[in-house]
TrEMBL record:
One Pfam family this sequence matches: cNMP_binding
Alphabetical UniProt keywords: Kinase, Transferase
Highest classification ranks of the organism: Bacteria, Pseudomonadati, Pseudomonadota, Alphaproteobacteria, Hyphomicrobiales
CDD domains the UniProt entry points to: CAP_ED
Organism annotation: Pararhizobium polonicum
Protein name listed in UniProt: Protein kinase
SUPFAM superfamilies the record matches: cAMP-binding domain-like
Keyword Transferase: yes
Molecular-function annotations in GO: DNA-binding transcription factor activity; kinase activity
Matching PANTHER family: CRP FAMILY TRANSCRIPTIONAL REGULATORY PROTEIN (PTHR24567), DNA-BINDING TRANSCRIPTIONAL DUAL REGULATOR CRP (PTHR24567:SF68)
Domain Cyclic nucleotide-binding: 15-118
SMART domains tied to this protein: cNMP
Amino acid sequence: MALNDDIALLSLVPLFADIDDDKLRLIAFGAERRRLNRGQQLFREGAPADCAFAVASGSFSLTRSLVDGSAQTVETVGRGTLLSELAMISFVERKFTATAEEDSEVIRINRPLFRRMLEEYPDVAVVVEARIKDNLQTMIRAMQKLAPRFG
């Protein structure tokens, strides 16, 4: 794929939506592409996460392990989805297993590359911080809706 195709893909990712193409070029240039065959795992639940993956093509089922040892599909995601975005910022574990539902391709964005973008473009850090805060607020609201079930 051409660099411009990767920039166009990254601009579809909500976290990067308000970042201009010149700044996304840094990520697109330094990121790695990876192809997966149908049924191949991208990563496993509980594994240390050192990068995020933007889905370039295909789709992935996201599953979590249940107490009885079986797996539950949480959702299926496709092009433009960013998996494990917090791994670009800090050390975290994968919260689910991602398996290719069809032949697929991802763009791997490692932590040092993302940090480099934040250092070179401080205005991007402001955008990313706002997006992360919005995501956390959305998660908190969802948890608050569930609270009565556990109270």
